[in-house]
Amino acid sequence: MRGSTFGKGLLVVGVLVGVAPSSAQVAAQGEVPDFSSNLAGWQNINPDFVPVAGAVGPTRNNPAYPYVSNQEARRTGTQPTFRVADLTNPNLKPWAKEIMQRENDKVLAGGIAYTPRSSCMPAGVPLFLMFPVAEPLYFIQTPKQVAMIFAGDAQVRRIYLNVPHSANPKPSWYGESVGHYEGDTLVVDTIGLNSKTYLDNYRTPHTEKAHIVERWKLVDDKTLEVTLTVDDPDTFYQPWAATHRYRRIQRPSVYEEACAENNQSVFDYGMPVANKPDF
Predict the structure, then answer these.
(1) CA–CA distance from 118 to each of 33, 77, 159, 172, 224 (Å)?
(2) What SS3 state is found at 7?
(3) For residues 46 and 228, what is the distance between their CA atoms, to the nearest angstrom?
(4) Does 139 reside within a domain?
(5) In 31-175, where do the E strands start and end?
(6) What's the distance, Cα to Cα, between the start and end of the chain in Å?
(7) Residue 264 is assigned to a structural domain of this protein
(8) CB count, 10 Å around CB of 171?
(9) What are the pLDDT tens digits along the chain (279 aa)?
(10) Which domain holds residue 180?
(11) What's the pTM value of the predicted model, to 2 decimals?
(12) Number of folded domains in the chain?
């Protein structure tokens, strides 16, 4: 199986000299898009997935409980809050709403909302796309593989190029991602996800039938956009679509950074803790 890994150790990003070309230049030259040159890292622009006009959209925040991020709280001097999912979404099937209601109730009772980052867990797909807030996302592109590396704790997704999916991929945290280039766009197709992760920051669940297609494209020299479609017939009545954008930042490399596992008294959702040394 071509599964992705939960990376460990020091990772250094290879770079190309020069400034990355714009998407228009890439298309004109007939070359694949370059997401990595000139020490490029990518940080989130949007706090959540953005709906696509005319398509079924992602889970949104309940307007009765406005979400205030840590960054906004520092800027405005207000109290930060956790996200509360809007369960009037008609696309959610009843079992999914029950799980999300349970999670909403925890937050509204004063509890802490689960996030994979706060408990040192893999994010799954597409929630992995939301990780690059304080730490960026990096790309390594080779003829056979694209690696997406989240700098926060070196979680890695691997996209295998120009190959078919395995006949029966074993479900895993990041599933099996295969891809190809369509002009200036990297197209990624992911199946084989286990059901241990959520799809977004609103704790939307999914089943092992989840199928995610991403289309990555440079909007300009400083902006990277991904358009995604999520299809899971056991969780949603219809597939939904969204976009997400990143801004370019310059960093020399990806440094080793372990996820702090010392928050059990606050965030203990079953953090992985080694019970014996690796060597």
Answers:
(1) 33, 23, 26, 20, 26
(2) coil
(3) 14
(4) yes
(5) 40-44, 50-51, 137-141, 145-150, 155-161
(6) 26
(7) no
(8) 17
(9) 554 444 433 344 433 333 344 433 443 445 889 998 877 899 999 989 999 999 999 999 999 999 998 888 889 998 899 999 999 999 999 999 999 999 999 999 999 888 888 778 899 999 999 988 878 999 999 999 999 998 888 789 999 999 999 999 999 999 999 999 999 999 999 999 999 999 999 999 999 999 999 999 999 999 999 999 999 999 999 999 999 999 999 876 666 777 765 555 544 555 566 778 777
(10) 23-58+91-257
(11) 0.82
(12) 1
CB atoms within 10 A of CB 126: 26
H runs (alpha helix) in the chain: 23-29, 70-76, 94-108, 264-267
**How many Å apart are CA 114 and CA 269, to the nearest integer?**
7
What tokens appear for 245 in the block?
A: 């954008």
143 token code pair: 């003829």
4: DSSP letter: -
Distance in angstroms (rounded) separating the CA atoms of residues 46 and 223? 12
User: Does residue 156 sit within a domain?
Assistant: yes
| Number of continuous H segments (helices) and E segments (strands) in the chain | 4, 10
Q: How far is it, in rounded angstroms, from Cα 1 to Cα 42?
A: 29
If one counts every other C-beta atom within 10 angstroms of the C-beta of residue 28, the result is: 11
In this structure, is residue 102 part of a structural domain? yes
Q: In this structure, are strands 223-231 and 155-161 parallel, antiparallel, or unpaired?
A: unpaired
Look up residue 20 and give its amino acid. A
